[in-house]
Design goal:
The chain contains three helices and three strands. It has 79 residues and is α+β, with helices and mostly antiparallel strands. A three-stranded mixed β-sheet has the order 1-2-3.
Length: 79
């Protein structure tokens, strides 16, 4: 299926329903293909594929996240 950028803006729900049915959608802008929307693999989490998820899980200095962020936001002296 082909859809224009304008179709995405005004008919996103219908296009997403097509993707859910397993269709591949080619997105065009000014007659040229700019993107491809494909269905995600069934039962597979996007988080599992991302190598950055959990990259800081072994850090001990971030046990209390609120305290860590508070420390980062603390004012710094110039001296």
């Amino acid at each position: 299926m082909k859809a224009t950028a304008k179709d995405l803006r005004y008919n996103l729900k219908g296009i997403m329903e097509s993707v859910e049915r397993g269709e591949e959608v080619l997105v065009t802008n000014r007659g040229r293909i700019k993107a491809r929307i494909i269905p995600a693999a069934a039962g597979k989490s996007m988080k599992e594929d991302n190598p950055f998820v959990g990259m800081w899980k072994d850090r001990t200095d971030m046990g209390d996240v609120e305290a860590y962020v508070r420390e980062l936001r603390k004012g710094r002296s110039l001296c």
